[in-house]
Amino acid sequence: MAEPWHYTTFLDLIDHWQALIAAALGFGAAIVAVILTLRVEQRKLQREMDALQKSLAVELRQQVGSALAAGTALRKLARSGPPISARMVESYARVPAPFVYPASADKIGLLGQAAMDVVIVYSLILLGRSGTESLIHSRDPNDVSAMTIDATAGAFLNACTYAQSVLPKLRTGVPEHDQRDAMLIEKIKAAIAPTG
To answer: Which pLDDT score, from 0 to 100, does residue 196 have?
Structure first.
């Protein structure tokens, strides 16, 4: 018959319970590894979100500036009177295609509440760009309707109007760029103000 184990020394205790002690240490190490991995992933996500926000902030300011220039120029062109050619429309409405926004569309949701605002501004600018494209390729390229040009200008200016509330939410991280927002917003207000 086996004799029951009796504690005599500390080493004897460790020797007898070594499997349980090893399991407990392994379990503890696994928990620490998971916690550290989650923290690393959280920091990585935060850096990615910060980079996304800053990249979109820079591009959005460029897009809004171009849309404001195009909207203002098209509105003046529409009020200049006929005949208005498709070439004139093309030279007045140059809004470059965005690169950051389409490339990061699957991550826009990381912006939280600002995500919907960003999508709306980009969608309105796209609407203006599409309108310009259709005007450039109109059936009668030498006589484009002033009313249609004014509507296209309105799409660009609506994007700018909406952007007034979006720009302060998305910071570039460069104070000089962010400080120019006030000037851009003033230009937008002047462009959309009713003329008397």
So the answer is: 46
134-190 pLDDT tens trace:
877 777 777 777 888 888 888 999 999 988 888 888 877 777 777 788 788 888 888
DSSP strand E in 100-169: where? Answer: none
| Neighbouring C-beta atoms of residue 166, cutoff 10 Å | 20
Rounded Cα gap, residues 100 and 171, in angstroms? 15
Contact between 112 and 167 (Cβ < 8 Å): no
Amino acid at 23: A
Q: pLDDT tens digit string along 126-136?
A: 988 888 888 77
d(CA 84, CA 148): 11
Average pLDDT over residues 104-112: 81
Residue with tokens 């500036």: 65
Phi-psi sector, 127: left (phi>0), alpha (psi -120 to 50), beta: alpha
Q: Which of 55, 65, 26 is nearest to 163 (CA)?
A: 65
The total of other beta-carbon atoms located within 10 Å of residue 182's CB is: 11
Tokens representing 71 are 């909207």
For residues 182 and 187, give the distance between their C-alpha atoms in angstroms, rounded to a whole number: 9
Show the CA angle centred on residue 115, arms to residues 109 and 120, nearest 5°: 130
Packed helices 18-79 and 114-136: angle between N→C axes, nearest 10 degrees: 40
The tokens for 11 are 């080493």
The pTM for the full model equals: 0.74
